[in-house]
Amino acid sequence: MSQELWSSVDEFICSLLAPEDASLEAALKAGTAAGLPPISITANQGKLLMILAHSIRARRILEIGTLGGYSTIWLARAVGPAGRVVTMEIQPAHAEVARQNVARAGCDSIVEIQVGPALDLLPGLATHDPKPFDMVFIDADKAAAPDYFAWALRLTRPGGLIVVDNVVREGNILDAESPDPSIVGIRRLYEIMSGERRAVSTAIQTVGSKGLDGFSISLVTAPA
Fold first, then answer.
1. pLDDT tens, 188-218?
2. Angle CA(59)–CA(203)–CA(121) in degrees, nearest 5?
3. Domain 3-220: what homologous superfamily?
4. What is the dihedral of CA 206, 182, 171, 137, to 10 degrees?
5. Hey, is 214 helix, strand or coil?
6. Which is it for strands 84-89 and 111-115: parallel, antiparallel or unpaired?
7. How far apart are the C-alpha atoms of 182 and 58, rounded to whole Å?
8. Which SS3 state, helix, strand or coil, does residue 220 take?
9. How confident is the model at residue 130 (pLDDT cuts 50, 70, 90)?
10. What beta strand segments (E) does 53-154 contain?
11. Which of 23, 109, 126, 164 has a 20 to 30 A CA-CA distance from 212?
């Protein structure tokens, strides 16, 4: 097994089941041109998010970590023209790229991009926009993943989903002595999910064009 093989399988899957249209391709190209890190989700991951959102008839989605808006476009297409996606991005330059990409995809009437540290923005969202979300996608700094998850539980309706990306970290989550804040944060997230009574959770490790990684998914079963 090799990275080359994993990437080739991803390309095969995406070519048949998650082909990118012009707007999605342009979003990735714009991110590259602007110097954004190449860490967007893959097309098949985007399609999975869309399917999950459709499966629970999501109309309100919160995304923590916008980057260039590639995943945001998938989520906006899932909620449809009557839905709403609130996405949070700490880097103003990244948010501006995302705005252009979302507008190009025709989703700007659906998407609200908030700029700043998510942990500063989330209290205001809870106060001024208290209607619960159907789904939360967390793809931001991993050190703060436990805090993001706590807010997601507070903001998501029973029956809603919380998805956290990058929870395997090339297998480094096995290192209990790691000083890496990302590893510490993700290991703490697992501990919290394992004891959380308001949600049931699991995690899936994946291989693909992004190497060895994975995501967690939690079904909220009780109100905050």
1. 999 999 999 999 999 999 999 999 999 999 9
2. 50
3. Vaccinia Virus protein VP39 (3.40.50.150)
4. -20
5. strand
6. parallel
7. 29
8. strand
9. confident
10. 60-64, 84-89, 111-115, 133-138
11. 23
